[in-house]
Amino acid sequence: MLPAIMRELLPPGLMGLFCMLVILMIISTDDSRIYSASLTLSQDLVLPLLKKPPTQKQHINIIRLVTIAVGVFFFCGSLFMSQLEYVTLFVMIMYGIWCAGAGIMVLGGLYTRIGTAAGAWAALLSGSGFMTIGIIIQRNWANVVHPWLESMNWAVPVGNVLQWISSPLNPYVVWKMNPYKCPVNAVELSFISMLLSIVFYCIVSLLTYRRPFNLDRMLHRGKYNTDGEIEVEKSVWTWKNIFSKTIGITNEYTRGDKIIAWSVFIYSFGLGFVLFLIIVAWNCFDSWPLKWWGNYYLIRTLAIPFVIAIVTTVWFFIGGMIDLRRLFRDLKNRQIDADDNGVVTGHISLSDRKKFEVIDKGDESSK
After folding, report:
1. How does 4-13 read in b/e, with b if 16+ C-beta sit within 10 Å?
2. pLDDT tens figures, 150-167
3. What is the DSSP letter of 152?
4. With contact defined as beta carbons under 8 Å apart, do 108 and 115 qualify?
5. pLDDT tens digits for 59-78?
6. What is the pLDDT of residues 166-191, one digit of tens each?
7. Residue 80: in which H helix or E strand, if any?
8. Computed over its alpha carbons, how large is the radius of gyration of the chain?
9. Considering the entire predicted model, what is its pTM?
10. Residues 6 or more apart from 353 whose CB is under 8 A from it?
11. How do the residues of the chain divide into helix, strand and coil, expressed in percent and rounded to 5?
12. Would you say 116 and 209 are in contact if contact means Cβ atoms under 8 Å apart?
């Protein structure tokens, strides 16, 4: 309904500007996703298979070729993939192909000392594999999967099993056999795939675990802090700073940063939660007339966001120009490190290997 309503509400000129804005947003979003996917595939799948690190020119050409391949894959997938779910569920299942296994890989790799490469591969293959199979089953349920179950006389037993599994979660989760649509939707498939990836990651990592992983070295903490950055001293929780700690304000926040953090918190928490509770309590004792609800949504969804949009547009434009000048100045003065290409050997990047070898040798000599 939204496109039809927008077409009737907006005049021709404004409608054209709105469509141009949508196209620009689509381009800016898709190119970032393609670039992110191509970098991940290049750094984590292609480069480890090479016998020696590539030159800078070869590295860039590899990323370019993988980017083209990812773009072609996205195009073919969107061209031949039928959307049988609601938009939100369709986006969920598309995200789930990668995120189902990648989530535990990132969390386990950054916050545990027992994670292994074998566990990461097990999580990725189990989670992403389950989501891929789920998409194929959903895509071919009506013309292939359900007729095959009928031919094998398995439709009724499988339906009974699905109903028995989902019965404790009724009415929120209902898996009922349907000849036209897969009983398990995209959100449920994504959740199951995440659970599978977590289980496989933990089991395989524990089976292949040999010694604790050096998280301080990977995260450049403690003696491995070679970036020249001063580590922020952790403050103790007290009654005076409990709200600041909850919001995430640290000692390195400037006065302007604190104002921004507090204003965002007051806006989101005050209008989104406190005001909601007040309105609910009010309507429990005295229901609002229809006109009041109209005025409330006019102010809440149009007037306040309009004022915020004006402030943030001016603010982001000025700040963006300042940061853009700073970016070009830093790029001009930067020192290029040929080893800083993202290649990791032995759980250490090439750019950090020499620095860490000196630190580790110093510790061994002191012992």
Report:
1. eeeeeeeeee
2. 999 999 999 999 999 999
3. T
4. yes
5. 899 999 999 999 998 888 77
6. 999 888 888 999 888 889 888 888 88
7. helix 56-80
8. 27
9. 0.61
10. 339, 345, 346
11. 75, 0, 25
12. yes
Least confident of 110-124, 210-224, 316-330, 348-362: 348-362
d(CA 23, CA 7): 16
pLDDT at 85: 56
Identity at 332, one-letter amino acid code: K
Exposed / middle / buried, residue 301 (Cβ in 10 Å: 0-12, 13-18, 19+): exposed
pLDDT at 239: 65
CB neighbour class for 114 (10 Å; exposed up to 12, middle 13-18, buried from 19): middle
- What's the rounded mean pLDDT across residues 138-145? 88
CB atoms within 10 A of CB 131: 28
Widest distance between CA atoms in the chain:
79
**DSSP secondary structure, 242-307, as one string:** HHHHHHT--TT--HHHHHHHHHHHIIIIIIIIIHHHHHHHHHHHSPPPHHHHHHHHHIIIIIHHHH
How many other C-beta atoms can be found within 10 angstroms of the C-beta atom of residue 193?
26
Q: Is the peptide bond before 171 cis (omega within 30 degrees of 0)?
A: yes
- Cα–Cα distances (Å) from 213 to 63, 199, 205, in that order, read 30, 20, 12
